[in-house]
Amino acid sequence: MLMQHKIISVKNLVKNYGDFQAVKSISFDVYEGEIFGLLGPNGAGKSTTLEIIETLRDKTSGQIIVDGIDLDKDPSSIKKNIGVQLQTSGFYPSLNLIELIKLFGGLYNKEVDPIELLKKVNLVDKAKSKSKELSGGQKQRFSIATTLINQPKIIFLDEPTTGLDPQARRNLWDLIREIRSAGTTVIITTHYMDEAEQLCDRIAIMDQGKIIKLDSPDKMIDELVETGFERPKQVKAASLEDVFIHLTGREMRDE
Ligand code: ADP
Ligand code: MG
To answer: Which is the closest atom of ligand 1 to the Cα of 206?
Structure first.
C-alpha cells in the first residue's frame, strides 16, 4: 500500500470487566483502504476492542482516534460515519429486505436505494423476502448491506463468516473484497486462520487481551520460514474443502 493514511488509531487501550482485564493496553493503527483483521481465539478480546471503537462499549482507558475524531470528544460523529452490522433477525419479523433498508436509512437520516444496495450484496431476488426466510450466508450478506446504508468510510465486521458453509464463506470474502475495492476500509474479527490469511492485508493476532503480533500474513509466514521452520508433514496441493467445492461447483450459491 502506497498511501498509508491512518484512519483508525488505538493507543494503550485497556478494558476491565470488574477485576478481569479483557484488553491489556493494546495499540494499533488501521490504514485507509485496507482490510485489517483482529485474529484470535474465543475470549481474546476481539469483540470488546471492536465494540469500543464502534462507540458501543465504554473503555477503561486509552486513546482512540477514528477518521480524525477523538472518541472521548465526539463519539456521536464517529457513530454517524462508520458502518456497524445492525440486528435484523427477531426485531422486525414482518418487514421484508426493502422495508428494513428503508427503516434503517431513516434511522441514519439517509436516502437509500434499497435495490442498488441489495445488488451490491447479490440479494436482489430476495428483496421481498423477510430476513428470517434467508439462509445463513444470505443473512450475513444482508447484515453486511446494513453496514453500507450510511455510506461509511469504515465498516466493522465481527466474525461475519462464523457458522457458514465453505461456499457461503467464499462468497462473503468476495463481497468484502468488493467493498474494499470501492474504497471502504474494513476491520474484521475472526478466529479462522485461513480467513485472516486470505482476506486481510494486515492482521493483529490477539491472545488473552494482548496483541502478540501485527503484520501482513505474508510477512509473518516469511519470517517464520526464515527461522528454519518446516511443516512436519508434506503439504498437500489441495484441501478437503477444495475437493468439496470442486464436486459441488464453486459458483453454487448458498440457498
Ligand atoms: P472475543 O470476541 O475475542 O471472543 P470478547 O471481547 O468477547 O472476546 O471477550 C473477552 C473476554 O472478556 C472474555 O474472557 C469474556 O468472557 C470477557 N467479557 C466479555 N464481555 C464481558 C462482560 N460484559 N462482562 C464481563 N466479562 C466480559
Ligand atoms: Mg467475539
So the answer is: 3
How far, in Å, from the CA of 212 to the mean position of ligand 2? 17
The HSE-up count of residue 37 (CA atoms within 13 Å, CB side) is: 26
Q: pLDDT tens digit string along 218-232?
A: 999 998 888 888 877
pTM assigned to the model: 0.90
CA of 60 to the centre of ligand 1 (A): 14
- The residue whose CA has the least distance to atom 5 of ligand 1 is 45
**What residues sit around ligand 2, an ion, with C-beta below 5 angstroms?**
46-47
Instruction: Express each pLDDT in 137-182 by its tens digit.
Output: 999 999 999 999 999 999 999 999 988 888 899 999 999 999 999 9
